[in-house]
Every structure is written in structure tokens, then in C-alpha cells.
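Subject: sequence -> C-alpha cells, single chain

Hey, anyone have a minute? Need the predicted structure for the following. Not urgent.
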Amino acid sequence: MSVTVFVAANCPHCGALLDDLTRRHVDFDLVDLTTHPERLVELAAVTWERRLPAVVDHERCSIGFAGRSSSWAELGLSLPGRHSG
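Reply:
Had a minute. Here:
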């Protein structure tokens, strides 16, 4: 089974997570919210936290990597119809 990983291009913690998953040969589906911001709605439906990176499997969502994460606002992301703050 694969997990879905939500990242943004300018998030250093996202890059570190992707490097770790690749090194460990973990199967994952990648969602780059920089190029697909409409997918923020999907992520918001499974977690109240507005931080990246996020790893979602069929029953849970984990936020951050190695104790670090970036807020959506820091990355210039917001839900459709809302402005980042």
C-alpha cells in the first residue's frame, strides 16, 4: 500500500522527507501543492493542522518531518477562496 505525501516546492522540511522516503524505498503518491493548490481542500478534510509536509494513509495523517514543519501561510498557500496570511 502506498501513502500520499503533500509537499510544497519551497518547503525545506518537505524536501528532507522526500529524500528520506526515497532512501528507504517507500512507495508514495506525491502531491505538490505548489502546482496543485486545489488539492489543499483534500488535505484540509483530513487534518485541522495547516502545516507541511503531510503524509496521509487510509486511516491517519502525520504532519512534519523530524519534528519540523512549515505553515501553509509561510509557504504562500491557502484554501481556494481564502488569502494566505
